[in-house]
Amino acid sequence: MARLIYSGLFKYDSEGKISPDLATSYDLSDDKTTYTVHLRENVAWHDGEAFDASDVAFTINLLSDPSFKSPLRNNWQGIATSVLDSHTLQFKIDTPYAGFLSNLIFGILPKHLWNAITPDNFSLNPLNLKPIGTGPYKYDSVQKDSNGNVVAYKLVSNPNYFTGKPYISKMTFNFYVDEDTALSALNRKEIMGIGGLSSEKINDIKVQKSTAIYKLDLPRYFAVFFNQTKSVPVASDEVRQALSLATNRQEIIDKVLDGNGHSVYSPFLPGMIGYSPDTAQAEFNVDKANQLLDEKGWNKNGDGIREKNGTALKIHLITTDWGELTQTADILKSQWGKIGVQVNIDSLSISDVQENYIRPREYEALLFGQVVGADPDPYSFWHSSEKKDPGLNLSLFGDSISDKLIEDGRMQFDSGKRAQDYIDLQKIIATEIPAIFLYSPNYAYPVSKNVQGIELKNLISPSGRFSDANTWFIKTKRVRK
């Protein structure tokens, strides 16, 4: 919804590619460290005030200020922002970074309204509920229940939107306590769409004839990440290799996602720079897995559990209590049990997993997901500097060789050379097996067929489904007067 209200310098279009939004163009210096961005002129905020470069600089200052605790703060460390004139900004970075333009995709705030708000009062300001932006839609009203919970939020079209007034005059967002309640409302035709329906719920749509179901790819994957410092078995190369051989990804996709997803074998997904089907594959062969463990001295005891030198092949698997992941964990337990592995599962709340397991890295194996974004830069997830919190290297992977491939790849503007760096990185990951990559689920987006003009092909984030909402229209028909 924020995407409808706020505009950014750039945005992801319906194909998931970066395109200008409030910016019109940019220039890049020969040394690839200075970006000069040119802004649209005659853009107005929803309250009629003029938008200019000072609003952009103000927003970036908020993002980079630790007092505001923005999740985007790390994107702006070591970057110097200058306002050259009212419609031109310059960004200087220390070293070339091929994915820098993705840093410029964020909602711009109006300086004239937020300038006097302190960090302590920022999250409580009424403008969070009644925002002012430059996007195609603007705030109209909000409805709350007796407990103060928002149940409906209404937007109306912005007649002064810089690419023209949207075709649909208003949009109302209803909020429900759970997915089943929202689905029931869709089946009663009380609403015209649901953002992100679980795969197993798609067949529960009773109005399928009048509903278009968009099944879109998101740059995300789910995997089992191994912490080799916490377990003797998972620190053994042959155990991780055997687990990989015993993992039937298609069974998980069919049973958990009802077929709505695709297998994943590396942190690089189809369509990304560096994705290679030749390097991003893993064999499924239970017999070979058993043979490997036999040869390496992991013998089965009377209970069918393998042991070696007094160490049982037991793995403690942590995941969240989200339905799809608990089902996946149960299937993995069954699959790995066929090669003599005992899997003990703990399904916990997301907050518990994050605070007590991920942050201190207190797990042997972690079934979790990662959203990688549009640019394939794997630094945050796989560089050795990110092994400790707040880093996201959940497998504690990396050495000087893999680090250099990651560092060179993010500075390489030649797509062919960048792809080769990432292919070489995938080969290392495939050999060391720091994680077992499982699947990437489709993003299911059911919308009434009365809504026309939706041209979505690829999403970078769920909010991207509104990237072309200003050109949507309600199905019409000719009538004779």
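The record above closes out task 2.4. Task 2.5 opens with a second protein, given below.
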Amino acid sequence: MTHCHTILEALRQRGYRITPQREMIIQAVSHSPVHITAEEVAEQLRVHTQAISIATVYRTLDMLWQEGFALRNDLGEGRIVYSTVLHGPHIHLVCRKCNKVIDADVEILNSLSQDLQSIYNFQSDLDHFSIFGVCSDCQNKGRSK
């Protein structure tokens, strides 16, 4: 069973009605090799049908996130991107100056996650998020001026 079919079946078992629009949205996100915005999902699907609204795309992506099947991340400047959990844990380092996105290893967050649990009794979800700062290229440009 493919990843999108696994998600669809799990949603059915949780009592969700799987409309053709929901199925197309889930397929678009599941088959995307990169993070994708709601607008990009809608644009892809409009090639096949006009019977899908951006509101439906947002509601479906939010439902996938709430149910734990999708990851959602803010890459700055209103760029909210989605991927399925199959994409795996990762961190985005986003440059505030040039908007470059660098993927970082999530292993560096293990101690933070443990500290949050032991100090605050808070179970963190650090599998997919962004850290904003300034990349080395932009730092070097600032030094050369």
